[in-house]
Specification:
Blueprint (H helix, E strand, L loop, with lengths): L1 E2 L1 H8 L6 H9 L5 E4 H14 L3 H10 L3 E5 L5 H10 L7 H13 L4 E2 L9 E2 L3 E2 L4
Parallel strand pairs: 1-4, 2-3
Antiparallel strand pairs: 5-6
Helix pairs in contact: 1-2, 1-3, 3-4, 3-6, 5-6
Length: 132
């Protein structure tokens, strides 16, 4: 299953409005989740606002095997650029574009996200994401 920033931050932040929901969703799924560097960077940035140790907690979850960085932006510049252009009217983030590319590379439609844009985004041209 793919992993987006929102559930990762909500899992770590007890004050997040989606904390209980995130705990439940993570409990129902088997790790490791697949994500990308941009998701990890976004999560670190957001967790820094919650707690000075927040970024280290994000990285620690990766070290413990909760998630893996499944693609490198370096290997997918052209494809990620095409996704960013395709969805520029959606104000798509780099993390979202990378997750779309990750879905294509790993043929994975399931994504743990709170982002409603993944109801609009398609991977492999016309395949829909499966949201929790």
């Amino acid at each position: 299953m793919l992993l987006d920033t929102g559930p990762l931050v909500a899992l770590l932040s007890e004050t997040d409005a989606n904390h209980v929901r995130a705990r439940s969703l993570f409990a129902d799924c088997l790790p490791p989740f697949r994500c990308c560097e941009a998701v990890v960077a976004e999560a670190c940035f957001l967790m820094r606002k919650v707690d000075a140790a927040g970024p280290a907690e994000v990285v620690a979850l990766g070290r413990r095997g909760l998630y893996t960085v499944a693609i490198s932006v370096e290997d997918h510049w052209t494809n990620i650029e095409a996704v960013l252009r395709k969805y520029s009217d959606q104000r798509i983030s780099l993390a979202d574009a990378c997750l779309i590319r990750c879905a294509e590379v790993h043929e994975e439609a399931r994504i743990l996200t709170f982002d409603a844009d993944f109801r609009v985004y398609k991977w492999a041209r016309n395949r829909k994401f499966e949201l929790p």
